[in-house]
Amino acid sequence: MRRDGELREATWEEAFDAVAAGIRAVVERYGPHSVGVVLGNPNVHTMAGALYPPVLLAGLGTRSVFTASTVDQMPKHVSSGLLYGDANAIPVPDLDHTDHTDHLILIGANPLESNGSLCTAPDFPGKLKALKARGGTLVVIDPRRTRTAKLADRHLAVRPGTDALLLAAMTRTLFDEGLVEATPYAQGVGELSDALREFTPEAVAEACDVEAGVIRTLARDLAAAPTAAVYGRIGSCTVPHGTLASWLVDVLNILTGNLDRPGGALFPQAATDKTPRPAGPGRGFALGRWLSRVSRHPEAKGELPLSALAEEIDTATEEGEPVRALLAVAANPVLSAPDGDRLDKALDSLDFMVSVDPYLNETSRHAHVVLPRPRRRRARTTTSPSTPSPCATRSATPAPPSRFSPAGWRRPRSWPGWSSPRQACTGRTPPPSTRWSSTRPSARRSRSPTRPCTAATRASSPHSSPATTAPSDGST
């Protein structure tokens, strides 16, 4: 907790009381939307992140929600919502049956480094190598010559930000050369052809820095393959017209008959997803149900662009109150969001801020209360890949033994798996060439002046409450 301008160790009870008082004061004076919430990437990789943020947001009643997804894969969610009626219906390549896939195009994806994200599977790199070993073709479209691009049979170094133009020209080629496969479930194919009439390979070649003949060959090879899939990832999302590019990825799969068939692009079931639903209409997808206060950005999936957070804090308008309090959960937007310098200054103007994070970093150093979570191997929740986003395979990780009592769940006074009932941020910086002593030997050194929260043993009753902590010197 921050006391006299410095972050000092406190008990969990003291910290939670301070959080309740700080947020209540802002809500009572300015209204619920004056409380902003930032949800970072780790929230979609834990069961806790899937279960508890919705409860938190419902209790706060705020629409000022900013997420890491909006500077990542949100264009894909939006295109899937508009195309299929479900923002989480994201087709992925049929990696589990590489013997079925003859042709795979990756756009802005580097799974040899990441092992995939929206599409992920055990040994993603090995599956790509297996595809090539049996005669399949791997094409990578990426401005950079990544490790995945080096593995590919063909690497196309498109000009950054022109993915939508390239994909539109490939689609135009399919229409011009009669390569469109009849798809009875697709509507608006004729309108699509008319809309793309001017996007010929010759028209986009200079902008994309790709020869027209190469674009036509890409389209022809895709259509000629017995089975094929096109997959776009973050490189095709975080660009101008990222939503359009994400949509055109699926358009190519649809027009070549490769959507929802083995060896093509399939709709997988995530490890934590519900059982398959019977066929029938869903609830549909709504976009822009409310807008950000300053620049009037539309919400998507109930989330506002993280890039708008700074202006929502430091800019007053007649539309409502600026964000006066902020709750950042596993997020460091000062480092990861656009215009981090402006956000860094804006956070100093907040009436109250809470950071749920095991590190003191560029963002959490502004907080009035820092709530560290246990290290992942000691947490009571299991890890899941992009819950509930699609992934290629189910998780094989078993859930931990249940600690729920027949009479109902009770919060233990001392959390199982913690090395002591108190937690502390050491505030000590290790020598430049040494690793953090609080992490496993193979852990990487910190790349920024962040300090991990480490367990500090206290000789006291095992029923003492764990502490909300930060270094007493207030350093970062």
Short description:
Helices cover 30% and strands 15% of the residues.
Share of residues in strands? 5-15%
- Termini separation comes to 14 Å
The helical percent reads: 25-40%
Low-confidence stretches: 387-476
* Number of strand segments: 21
What CATH architecture label of the domain at 74-266 applies?
A: 3-Layer(aba) Sandwich
CATH topology of the domain at 74-266: Dimethylsulfoxide Reductase, domain 2
Largest β sheet strand count, sense and barrel closure: 6 strands, parallel
User: C-alpha Rg, in Å?
Assistant: 25 Å
Count of DSSP-assigned helices: 15
Strand order of the largest sheet: 14-5-4-15-16-18
What would you call the structural class?
Answer: alpha/beta
For CATH, the homologous superfamily of the domain at 74-266 is named as: Dimethylsulfoxide Reductase, domain 2
Instruction: Give average pLDDT, whole number.
Output: 81
Give an overview of the whole structure:
- By secondary structure, the protein is an alpha/beta fold.
- Among the domains are: 40-67 and 306-395, no CATH class; 74-266, Dimethylsulfoxide Reductase, domain 2 (3-Layer(aba) Sandwich), CATH 3.40.228.10.
- The protein is built from 15 helices and 21 strands.
- The protein has helices at 12-30, 47-60, 74-84, 111-114, 124-133, 147-151, 163-176, 189-195, 201-208, 212-224, 234-237, 242-255, 309-314, 333-336, 340-347, and strands at residues 2-3, 6-7, 10-11, 35-39, 65-67, 92-93, 103-107, 137-141, 154-156, 228-232, 265-266, 287-291, 298-300, 304-305, 325-329, 352-356, 359-360, 369-371, 423-425, 451-455, 467-468.
- It has a six-stranded parallel sheet, with helices on one face. Strands 9-8-7-10 form a four-stranded parallel sheet. It has a three-stranded antiparallel sheet with strand order 17-20-19, with no helix packed on it.
- Helix 7 crosses helix 10 and helix 7 (163-176) runs parallel beside helix 12 (242-255).
- The longest helix is centred in the first third of the chain and has 19 residues, at 12-30.
- The chain is elongated.
- It starts with a strand and ends in an 8-residue tail after the last strand.
- 42% of the residues are buried.
- Mean pLDDT is 81; it is low at 387-476.
